[in-house]
Amino acid sequence: MAQSLPNPHLALMENDKLHHLGYSTTEDLKALFGDVKFVCVGGSANRMLMLTTMLHDEFSIPLPATGKPENICKTERFVMYKVGPVLASNHHIGGTSVTIVLHELIKLLYYAGCVEPIFIRIGTSGGVGIPPGTIVITDRGYDEQLKNQHIVTTLGKFQVTDAVFDKGLAEEIQRHHTEKSHDVIIGSTLAIRDFYEGMGRLDGAVCEHGEEERLAFHRKLQELGIKNIEKEATSMSSLCKRANRQAAMVCVILADRLSSDRIQLTPETYKEYNLRPLRLVTRFIKHRLEQACDGYEAKTD
Ligand code: URA
User: Fold this and answer.
1) 143: CA distance to ligand 1 center in Å?
2) Hey, what domains does the chain have and what are their CATH numbers?
3) What is the pLDDT of residue 296?
4) Which residues pair with 135 in a beta bridge?
5) Distance 125 CA to ligand 1 centre (A)
6) How far, in Å, is the centroid of ligand 1 from the Cα of 167?
7) What is the model's pTM?
8) Is any ligand 1 atom within 6 A of the Cβ of residue 130?
9) Is the pLDDT confidence value at 298 over 90?
């Protein structure tokens, strides 16, 4: 059974237009999206293209005549691809942007009658004493006050919400780690609003602190058990939890910020690191589908 959503106003709307995805409830959303079981989101449009190209191959679903997955987002704001039971969309950078696309994806699949779809963010991050190339699956999000919470601002009021991901789902994804080249760990993630001053970097257009303060801050993060830093952990975990949707976040580390705040990877290493979480999530999805005997022709490893 499709899960309900905690918004009584939706039932009263004659036509819900999903402004940034371009779909509306006047269309047959069940026919278009009713089979979706997994939603993968990631900041970069190209990462979503790489993921869905990989999934076409894994599910033996031929690519369109163009040779690449078809972008089915109906606006220029985001990209969206569908490969069998997987929907993938980019979300650009930050909590504001990821929640816009998540509100619409959650509603889209609700209107399509999807049964318990799983939402997974696949991203990149900075490490806190963890080497580049490691994958972190987030259990808790910390906000800029270094609290395990997400503050939602509505109608001029602050509401403190939980910023936790589904523990069982994180552990299940971790069990699909098979590659010897790197570790996959479960840990807490700091979500900040800004790549430069917010992350305490020294290389923004403006910087009012020095390396010693930067290092002291990152040591404090390490003491709190924070493994990596990005920008969406708190907003995504809070929204999915309040909407009662299962969610996970799987991010590869591009730099260890206890050594340096600069990302110093060759293009080849950068590409390889970007592919690591895609391969892990693909193995998890394939396994779930095989268990459900869903008829998607997932190849064996
Ligand atoms: N993404 C981030 O948010 N931070 C980094 O340091 C690298 C990627």
Assistant:
1) 15
2) 8-293 (3.40.50.1580)
3) 66
4) 184, 252
5) 4
6) 23
7) 0.97
8) no
9) no
